[in-house]
Specification:
The chain is mostly beta strands. Helix content is 6%, strand content 43%. It is built from 3 helices and 30 strands.
Length: 495
Amino acid sequence: MNTSFRSFAITSYRCAVLCLAATPLAAQQMIQPVAASTDMPGFASSPPSRLFDQSGLLANYVDGATDFAEFVAATPHRNSNGDSLVTRFVAGGTITLDLGAARTVDAVHLWGLQTAATQLMEFSLFADDDAVFGNGTSASLGSFTGGVGQAGRTFPFTAVTTRFVHIEVLANGGDAVVKVGEAAFRRAAPTDVPQRTILQPAAASTSLRQLFGFVVGHVFDQSGLTAPYQSGQTDFASYVTSTAHANSNAASLLANSNGQNQPHGVVDLGETITLDLGGAQDIDGFALWNTRVGSEALVGFALFADDDGDFDNGTRRPLGEFRALASQAGQAFGFRPVSTRFVHVVVTGHLGGNFLRLGEVAFRLAGQTIGAGCPGSGGVPILVASTAPELNSTFVTSLRGLAPGVGSGFVMIGNAKEPVPVDLGLFGAPGCLLFLNNLVVQQFARSGGAGTFNLPIPADPNVAGITLFEQAFDLDPAANRLGFTTSNALAFTIR
């Protein structure tokens, strides 16, 4: 690569990361209402303002900045009446949320309190240009069911630009009052921001003693989930936050350390559940669906990546330690991207019940893979993310399947996918496709049939939310007339 071309590449990259901040392709973020009202009789100590002031949440978010999926999956309500809206239950009563200006949203997350009888069970949502419900200007966003407890639930709908959202209350759990802890919205993603998809394990085993036929295979077979997903296709974040477990023994793992029934069952810390992904997969997140039986839930765990299913042979790599709620709602946990076939879940927290009861688990595929590479003399080049694309860091991508003994190759970085992949067969590389537009071209480092590319990301917060695309091209004179093969493409959003 000559000096002038390298200078052009560096200048182009800076434009890609910094100049594009004027029109970022942002991730889905929290949207906080600015006001709320209700026509149902309430209590002075639990006014509508509690619905949006974050007083009842165990952590705080920043409007328009905090990632929606990660926040709602990790943050419950503190279960306090004084930090909630509490009103008399009136069928057909309304709660109106004011977003302060017209904003484009595609989901609401509602938190409630622990007592099921006071929870919001059935309701309808309406978008409106004004705060008056019933004057003919509201548009239906759908009807929804399901208890809204302490962990909360996400209710998605078709993206809409609106200032006001009305919640028409249709049913609660049977009490004379209804309690809603907090409400927040999800900013609708631009259509070209990639989703990270959910990955289903292929097998599982455990050091625990499985009881009554409620075996470890239930933790990945989707049998207890309220809706199915398609592994590798369904969006991880929206699925986990909107799907619960049925809390059925027959669709859960029920196990302990000594094989005894109650009242003599014991669950020892350090027991393991090992999940087999069926082959090496690039993952950066984990989801679990627990039980509502607090004494039996998995409330603390550590994750380890491994190349084999043996926890004790010294090859495991730590991914982190986590705390979980005793809840049927889906919960998500993130970690740095890793390529692994096996993941060990180690029990580090249990509240002393006779059994450990676990409903379901799944993983999040790291980044977003687009298409596939074309074969060359080293196999099919595969491009994967090795680190997270975070501010003030170096985003590292790795390559395998490169032509051995060849010393050159490059990556392209763009800010958009091609609407239709460009067929490079027209230029002498049959089966090879170009998936993105070209803003930057730079060489990657290689060793034999593998390579790495380092992309420095500045500390500038203005670049957070920008989505970029990357694809590798490997010099392989023996592969085809063009003398290059291509990898898959990756989409990544700076965070």
